[in-house]
Amino acid sequence: MIRLASLLLILIGLYGIFSSRNVIKILIGVNVMELGVNIFIISVGFFKGGIAPILTADSFSSAMKFVDPLAQAMVLTSIVIGLGITALGLVFARKIHAQYDTYDLGAIGGGKDD
Amino acid sequence: MILYAFVLIPIIAGAVIYLIPKKQMRWVAFALQIGLVVLSIYNFALIRLYGPSEIVLGNFAKIAGITLRCDTLSGALIILTAFIFLICFIFGLMDKFVNNLFIFFFLTLQALVMTIFLSRDLFNIYVVTEVSTIIVSVLIMFKKDSRSMYDGMLYLITNIAAMTFFLIGLGFIYKIFGSLDMNIIGARMHEIQDAKVLAVPFAFLMTGVSLKCAFLPLFSWLPKAHATPSAPSVVSVILSGLYVKCGIYLFIRIREMFMPALEMDNIFLIIGILTGVVGFILAMSQKDIKMILAYHTISQLGIVLIGITAGGEYAYYGGVLHLFNHAVFKSLLFLSAGIIISKYGTRDISKIRGVFKKMPYVSIMTFAAILGITGAPLFNGSISKYFIQSGVKGGIVEYALILINLGTIISFIKFSTMFFGGSVKDRIHVAFGKKAAVTIMAIMCLLMGMGGTLVIRSVFNYSVSINMIEYIKKTAVYFASLAGGYLVYMKYLKKMKFIKEGLEMELSVNGIAISMTAFFIFIAGAAYFIAI
Question: Between A26, A27, A113, which is nearest B146 by CB?
Answer without folding.
Answer: A113
